[in-house]
Amino acid sequence: MKKTVVLSIIAILLAPVVSQAYLETIEFDDTLVEGESLFVVVTGYLPDLCWEYLGDSTNAYHQTLVVYIDTVEIPTDDGCPQVIVPYTVQAVFPDLAADTYTLRIYERRPPLTDSIQDFEIVVTGTVSNDSTAWGAIKALYR
Q: Is the pLDDT confidence value at 127 over 70?
């Protein structure tokens, strides 16, 4: 099932004194069938021109699928104009085996505390169409 998680809407207007990068939405399917790929779209924004989007990367280890988003604050003596700078990250984790996974969105944002969001992804196995499997299913109902 397609899932969209809204993390912030107008947080920048509510807290302009402490500027930081914000994750805004995370879109993904939380239930997949074995062999399918997990597609993740993350949107966010930088609250002013003193923040810079450095890039993104992915990593898969054991049952944890991680999307890293790197932003950094670079203060200047001239001040930071309050201009919202949006960004979008797209990630793919291909050919997942049947299992339960943790999708982790990890926003690294020095000098502030990193932001970590975890979600559960369930990948179900496929049912074989051969006659043995069908016979076993019919036997359950006899």
A: no
